[in-house]
Amino acid sequence: MASLEDMKDYQTSSGSAYQVFPKLQSDHYFSWSASMESILCSLNQWEVVTGAFIPPVHADPNAPTDKELQMERAWELRKEHAYTEIDLHIEDQQRVSIRDNQNPHLAWDTLRTVYGNHLANTRAALLAEITRIQYDGSGILEHKSKMDALQIKLIEAGHPVPEPLYLNFFVNSLPEEFDAITSCVPPFGRRHAR
């Protein structure tokens, strides 16, 4: 069981953290959650959010001691601050999913379920798109820009494509007329079956 000092051993954000990364929107849950985890860890709040730090239990629920009541108040305050950190890093539209829930652990799980699952489907669609995209003759730089945009969307969806694999997708998206160039790009010079 945690001590009263453990209950009080946390910080709240100074407000400057709000400028560091964008608030949660529907399209970047994974990068947001990684940044948010860092903030919560630095404030010694992460264990409250994960549920690893549990609320105090009274030895006798009908007659709690003064120390147990102090620990309970400290726990409630810590839980409130952890929830507030999450809430302040969410855009208004995303607050709807946690509005009726002031528990930071349940709020975090809800956000992961709502936005993480949504982005898992988005990742699958983006991966399918980047593997099937073909050069449309609009210009090589424009084609690369389209592929770069897909790569950025995949990063935001929590699935960055490693550079060698990205290069493989790019090379294989080009028509045969580019073989003289793509054959010079090791180890992806040979075309895969389309």
Structure explained in plain terms:
The mean pLDDT is 83. With 194 residues, the protein is mostly helical. The chain folds into two domains: 4-115, no CATH class; 116-182. The protein has helices at residues 4-8, 29-42, 46-50, 66-87, 92-95, 104-132, 140-156, 163-173, 179-182. It contains nine helices and no strands. The radius of gyration is 24 Å and the shape is elongated.
Main attributes?
mainly alpha; 194 residues; 2 domains; 9 helices; 0% strand
In short, what is this structure?
The chain has 194 residues and is mainly alpha-helical.
Number of strands: 0
Give the end-to-end Cα distance, rounded to a whole number of Å.
Answer: 60 Å
Which percent range fits the helix content? 55-70%
Question: Mean of residue pLDDT?
Answer: 83
Return the structural class: mainly alpha
Helix count from the secondary structure assignment = 9
Strand percentage: under 5%
Q: How many structural domains are formed by the residues?
A: 2
The helix/strand series, from N terminus to C terminus, equals HHHHHHHHH
- How big is the Rg? 24 Å
- What low-confidence regions span 5 or more consecutive residues with pLDDT below 50? none
Largest sheet: none
Shape: elongated
Strand and helix map with partners:
Layout: H1 4-8, H2 29-42, H3 46-50, H4 66-87, H5 92-95, H6 104-132, H7 140-156, H8 163-173, H9 179-182
